[in-house]
Amino acid sequence: METDLYPIKRVLFKVLVLPFYLRMSLFYFLIVYFGFGLLHPEQIPFFHTSLVLGIFQDSRVYSIMVLVWILYDIRFFFYVQKALKKPENEFLLCLAPCFNKNSLFLSFLISVFWACLPFTLYLFFTVYQGFTHGFWFASGFFLGIHFLVQYLMAYVLSHNYGELFVRNNWLVGITLWVLNRKKSPFSAFLYYLFLNRKFMLLITKIISLALLFFSLTITKIWVFDEKVPVLFLIIAMVIHYSLVKEIFYFDSKWQEYLRNVPYSLSRRYWEMVGKMVILFLPEIILFLVFPVSKLGYFMIPECILIGLGTLFLYYTFSLMQKFFMNKNAGPVFFLFILEFVLNLYSLWIWMGILAWISSIILYFTHYYSFEGKAEKSEFEWE
Amino acid sequence: MQGALLEIRNLVKEYGEISILDIPSFSIAKGFYLIQGENGAGKTTFLKILAGILPYRGDIILAPIGSEKLNRIAYRKAVNFAEAEPIYPDFLTGNDLLSFFERAKGPNFRSRELSNALGVPEYSGKTLKTYSSGMLKKLSLVLSWFGNPRLLLLDESLITLDKESIAIFLELLIKWFKEDEHLLILFSTHQVINFDESILSGIFKVENKTLNRI
Fold first, then answer.
1. Structure ipTM over 0.85, yes or no
2. Domain residue limits, chain A
3. What is the pTM of this model?
4. What angle do CA A245, A247, A252 make, to 5 degrees?
5. CATH topology for B4-213?
6. Is A7 on the interface with B (CB under 8 A)?
7. Rounded to a whole number, what is the distance in Å from the CA of B89 to chain A's nearest CA?
């Protein structure tokens, strides 16, 4: 039997929750793959129990994990804001005020609950482990803050339908002011990268940093194996896959424009290098602060060489997609191969130098190939 | 104007720095009005503002509800809008939208009658991504009759409809307009329709960012 709530609930689910899951499907896949797929089934319970206990035992990691959970919750809020501005959802914004406030609140609360369900389920496991091991306050706080954020989101959405932020809002005002300011060619990409998709990439960055911090602080494997910090850097690059792809996309457009600007070839290359360094600066600092400095400063140039060299190599391979590097499988395949070679032969510094040199050669090759095509095109027109 | 049902005061609509509409004052009584104007003149923007979809500066007053900004809930319940090119989320079915609008605005026998006359029940169980533009248009027209509208905004309501559906819709529209003593219809169209003079209360043209009576 249909209740008053049913039509609103159903429409909100189909309009907001379902597309949200589709949008986040790759993210879920990666989380499930790394969290469950790489482990032997017998190891999974032990691994996750240790992981959870590690969270509770270190206040810094605990704070970061709480932040990650909140960010995920808020991600849905931002998604709803964006969704409500879409032309096909105008009817929702227009009709929402016609509903009873309580029904609307309850419907939004249910939608928020559905959208946050995967994280909520893992949180239940975390809290259960926390309670059974005596972390009463930390577990309760974690659970409480998660549901409080969900409650507040549902409240704001049901009372303002996102209009609080969509219309006449200082946050939107500031964002527009920032976006409308004149940008230097170099900073334009940072705006594009972090603000273009409703802060999604920025949030991805924060989550990846949090995971990296967590890995380095809790596991401390690097104390036993010096290769681990470099492997973590490679994992960070895999996590940053979408960011690097965005830079690639941005650059492929940017280069078409730059052809008309009197920039030297080396300046273009170093601009690209600069972008990558800025993008991975937090990770680099993290490595310098944590394992590398503790293992010995001799590791620093090796880490930077290998990490950035790999990144540039991947980037230039992306530019040349006609190579064996294809759109999606390529980068992961490449990084795993590199990881394998590194582990097998311990060719640290040589691999780094090789990757760096290869990236320069490939970049220049791509550039000349691009110019060649352009000239050919002009010739045909004549 | 005496007995004005809709009154507009200092309405200004801008997109960035571009001014689209600037209507110092405007008022009309109950009736059936055509809204005309060239492409890009601002007809749809004007109707969307009246529907409460687009933000604006100024005030819109609908009798007896009052200001749109002060009585948003009552205003939106009293104003129905059928878009020129309706788009809705693909995942929904026609029935989802029908029950959603019915709960939001309240039931109305006219919606059911129009729905049956246009053959909407035959496909309303399917998801909207399978609809043609004509089917979507029919659904949008049905949705615009839910509740108890005092202001009905019809934006290019006849485009994409077949001849038979146009005849059915116009017949019911005129019949219901005659029956309803408090209904104001603003009908935007480019098509030449010979409405009976007893029905048509006036024609407005959107030009030079304002509304002029022809």
1. no
2. 1-181, 183-382
3. 0.63
4. 95
5. Rossmann fold (3.40.50)
6. yes
7. 5
